[in-house]
């Protein structure tokens, strides 16, 4: 059974009297420990799809199941709880808080979840170690390289031990070696922890390292369901 399923999901926006159909009856099944890349030109619906799968927004038609549990659009309480506990986010621009150290950036989601301080300290150390930054927890983002910052962002996404990580262009603006470290890290997390990754990317270098590649074209998703 997939970790995340979309069935016939659609989403439209209304803008100045025009209806924009951003997603058209999308079917998607993402299994545990899988890295799925979403490709497609600008405006094809990638961000909209990530927002639905990350429980940041709701579809206006179709069905979404998380770990087999139906999540109707109206159930905001359950969606919010699941988003906080089970889903991590990695964005292109790192989105780190500049005045906070790497340690405190990674700690923040646990603080919001109300995890006790002693446990938080241990888990932040563990997450930083997972991304190879155990010695740099005291550094602020501007004291880190681009690749190190992206690794902090990944540590922050995984410190909750999420079942799903949503990543938007995680290797954009990184040199080849750094990008390859980041993708290798995702592979290790997918393999060792069974974390699933949904990754929107334009980065051709990334695709061979993903388990499969899904194409969005004007709101239509190709390859969303495994052909067993
Ligand atoms: P991508 O991430 O692939 O660039 P998006 O999901 O951002 O695609 O956008 C898909 C379509 O929906 C585009 O036509 C875009 O202009 C439109 N769209 C996205 N967000 C909004 C919004 N908040 N209001 C109106 N239209 C939007
Ligand atoms: P392996 O397949 O042995 O894990 P690497 O992960 O080191 O090999 O990647 C092989 C090549 O592909 C490297 O030269 C690296 O620059 C490039 N590469 C791998 N992943 C990415 C990525 N996500 N973004 C950019 N380049 C990548």
From TrEMBL:
GO terms for molecular function: ATP binding; ATP hydrolysis activity; transmembrane transporter activity. It comes from the Bacteria. Keywords: Antibiotic resistance, ATP-binding, Cell membrane, Membrane, Nucleotide-binding, Transmembrane, Transmembrane helix, Transport. The keyword ATP-binding applies. GO terms for biological process: lipoprotein localization to outer membrane; protein localization to outer membrane; response to antibiotic. One of its GO terms (cellular component) is plasma membrane. Residues 4-227 form the ABC transporter domain. Pfam families: ABC_tran (PF00005). InterPro entries: AAA+_ATPase, ABC_transporter-like_ATP-bd, ABC_transporter-like_CS, ABC_transpr_LolD-like, MacB-like_ATP-bd, P-loop_NTPase. The keyword Transport applies. Coiled coil: none annotated. Gene3D superfamilies: P-loop containing nucleotide triphosphate hydrolases. PANTHER family: IMPORT ATP-BINDING PROTEIN, LIPOPROTEIN-RELEASING SYSTEM ATP-BINDING PROTEIN LOLD. Belongs to the ABC transporter superfamily. Macrolide exporter (TC 3.A.1.122) family. This is ATP-binding cassette domain-containing protein. It comes from Pseudoduganella guangdongensis. The lineage of its organism: Bacteria, Pseudomonadati, Pseudomonadota, Betaproteobacteria, Burkholderiales.
């Amino acid at each position: 059974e997939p970790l995340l399923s979309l069935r016939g999901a659609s989403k439209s926006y209304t803008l100045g009297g025009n209806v924009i159909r951003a997603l058209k009856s999308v079917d998607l099944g993402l299994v545990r420990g899988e890295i799925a890349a979403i490709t497609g030109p600008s405006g094809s619906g990638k961000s909209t799809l990530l927002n639905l799968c990350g429980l940041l927004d709701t579809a206006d038609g179709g069905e979404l199941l998380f770990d087999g549990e139906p999540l109707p659009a109206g159930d905001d309480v359950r969606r919010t709880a699941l988003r906080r506990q089970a889903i991590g986010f990695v964005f292109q621009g790192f989105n780190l808080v500049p005045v906070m150290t790497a340690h405190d950036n990674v700690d923040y989601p646990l603080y919001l979840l109300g995890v006790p301080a002693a446990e938080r300290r241990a888990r932040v150390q563990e997450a930083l170690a997972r991304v190879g930054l155990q010695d740099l927890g005291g550094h602020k983002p501007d004291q880190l390289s681009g690749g190190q910052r992206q690794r902090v962002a990944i540590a922050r996404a995984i410190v909750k031990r999420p079942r799903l990580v949503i990543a938007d262009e995680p290797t954009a603006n990184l040199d080849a070696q750094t990008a390859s470290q980041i993708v290798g890290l995702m592979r290790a997390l997918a393999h060792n922890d069974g974390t699933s990754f949904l990754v929107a990317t334009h980065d051709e270098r990334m695709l061979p390292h993903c388990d499969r590649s899904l194409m969005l074209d004007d709101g239509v998703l190709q390859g969303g369901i495994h052909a067993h």
